[in-house]
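USER: Write out one fold?

ASSISTANT:
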Amino acid sequence: MLNKNIQTFIGCDADYEQATHVLYGVPFDGTTSYRPGTRFGPSAVRAESFGLETYSPYQDKDLTDYQIFDSGDLELPFGNPERVLNLIEARASEILTDGKLPFMIGGEHLVTLGAVRAAFKQYPDLHIVHFDAHTDLRDEYLGEHLSHATVLRRCHDLVGDGKMYHFGIRSGDRPEFEWAKQHSNLQKFNFNGLSEALAEIGDKPVYFTIDLDVLDPSEFPGTGTPEAGGVSYLQLLEALTEVSQKANIVACDVNELSPIYDPSGRSTALAGKVIREFLLALQK
């Protein structure tokens, strides 16, 4: 049984035994290729969450009406991405084995691979829905196969062709886009085709990962690799709600908040709101 975190995300202080959803933070940015700082994301968003209400006027739901447990952040070693992934996989596996939905707060995007490994072991027909500015489909980056730039390629190594759906993508090498045409389902720039993709997936198990840099940096500057031309908060909210309500989500994450690049705090506040709305949307 996991111990209760001292400082929780607002409204997420249920007992573990009764919880249906379990938060866990992964403060890791060991393969960040541009601007590090996402290791500070989980703790920052928890602290800032108390500037939010537990109630969502968008969905007419309140976090206090549901059983959500915040297990705190993992303690992670420096300089060993594979060991970090093993620790993430162990935490996600424990939550899944106990019949609960693991909700990870990153951290850089490589952390998704550890949680996907855990979900794939329990759900061999796992599909992935991926919101991001970047393809993350390189086979290697500067000679490294484990990187936030390769994370979805490593996930493909597990799930195989036709089981990954990418939305909002507006950055990547040409070979990544060419590779995606053969092996994946990629929608550039926006969420067009999302409803059709969810209908295609049906009731198959889904891992849902949101890289917050899918947002335009005019709304969300606090991230390591900002990319112009992103979606708005309201567009993201509509899309994540649709996925959460229609898909059979078995595990999920929100990642790539780097609070040090936005001294105003608005990026952290926005990330907290995304997490609140995501948690509530998952309550069907």
In short: The mean pLDDT is 96. Residues 9 and 47 are 7 Å apart (CA to CA). The beta strands are 21-26, 55-56, 61-62, 68-73, 101-106, 127-131, 164-169, 185-188, 205-211, 248-255. The chain has eight helices and ten strands.
